[in-house]
Structure formats: structure tokens, C-alpha cells
Specification:
Beta-Lactamase, 5 helices, 189 residues, alpha+beta, 2 domains, single chain
């Protein structure tokens, strides 16, 4: 197995969506395939959504993927990488060919699935699942970091806004003026 290193640029950490796109581009390049996608688990609905993709048809990009259905759903339900040849079906990245997918997990927590596909039959070799799995593990680490960066940035923006409201309220002299200012600033936030 060749060494797998996910190339991440500093700007990718500032925006998780851009990082997800970089992961997909690297997976597509590394495995020399026509299509690739990073699915994220929607914790509220319990299904998978395409976060970033390359080479997928529009109708495939916008559909919801159920855990347990198709190769992507199977990988999500079992937590292990797999490869398969697929026929025309609703739960495939493309119309036919070969697919491979690996879970994107942080510890025991499933975040999503990284999948690649090609029109060619019997394309993926034994052992490539581990290579895709390593790429998915690295993606999970970088995505978790990007989400923490975004959360910290949002928390900082909220704190700054609250400090502004506090200063503005402190500048008012009467209770009605303070309440009006709080209402105005709350609406702005």
C-alpha cells in the first residue's frame, strides 16, 4: 500500500465545505476514477447527504442516502470499507461499474462516508479499501478540526456582539431606552 497523505492547505481549515471538496478531489485523483463523493451523516434524520462531489449526476448529488442501502449505506451501517461492482440501481454513485467506500469516523462516531466510483467493472484491487480507509480517517481528523475552528469563530463573533450590546446598554440612561436598545441589538444579532 502506498503512503496516503491528504494534502490540506491552511485555507481549507477556515471553511469545512472547501476542505470537503479538497478531500473529494484528492480521492478522485488518487484512485483515477470519474466520480467521488463525501457523504455526511445527518444526525437529525439519520441519513447521508452529499457534502462535496465530483463527477456525480445532479439527481445523485441531491438525493438522500439511507444507511444500509447501496454500498455507501452498507459502509455507513457496518463501519468498514468495502468495494463492489454495481449494476444500474438507485443506490449507486453512477449507472454501473465499480465502487469503493470507506467510513469517515471520529473514534466510534460515524461522521459520513467517502466513496469513489468508475464506469469500469472489476476496477478496484484487493487492499485498496485500506488505502481509501486511511484517506477517510485523515479526512475525519481534518474535518473535525475545521468544525472546531468554525465553532470557535462563531463563539468569538457572538461574544463580541454581546460585548457591543453590553457597552451600548451601559451608555443608555433610562430603563425604556435600555430596553429599546436591547431589543434593537437582539434583532440585529
Amino acid at each position: 500500500m502506498s503512503s496516503v497523505i491528504l494534502p490540506v492547505k491552511p485555507g481549507d481549515l477556515a471553511e469545512a465545505k472547501r476542505l470537503a471538496r479538497s478531500v473529494v478531489v484528492e480521492a478522485r485523483r488518487r484512485f483515477r476514477v470519474e466520480r467521488a463523493a463525501l457523504f455526511l451523516l445527518n444526525p437529525n434524520l439519520g441519513d447521508l447527504e452529499v457534502e462535496a462531489s465530483a463527477g456525480l449526476a445532479r439527481k445523485v448529488r441531491h438525493k438522500r442516502w439511507q444507511v444500509g442501502q447501496g454500498l455507501v449505506g452498507w459502509v455507513a451501517s457496518r463501519g468498514m470499507a468495502a468495494r463492489a461492482d454495481v449494476k444500474v440501481m438507485r443506490h449507486a454513485l453512477g449507472s454501473a461499474g465499480s465502487e469503493m467506500a470507506a467510513p469517515v469516523s471520529e473514534g466510534d462516531k460515524l461522521l459520513g462516508v467517502l466513496a469513489v466510483g468508475t464506469k469500469r467493472k472489476n476496477y478496484f484491487r484487493q487492499g485498496q479499501e485500506e488505502e481509501l480507509g486511511e484517506l477517510a480517517r485523515q479526512a475525519a481528523g481534518w474535518l473535525a478540526l475545521a468544525w472546531r475552528v468554525a465553532g470557535t469563530r462563531e463563539e468569538g463573533e457572538r461574544s463580541a456582539a454581546l460585548a457591543e450590546v453590553g457597552a451600548a446598554v451601559g451608555a443608555e440612561e433610562t430603563v425604556p431606552a435600555i430596553l429599546q436598545r436591547v431589543a434593537r441589538e437582539s434583532q440585529r444579532l
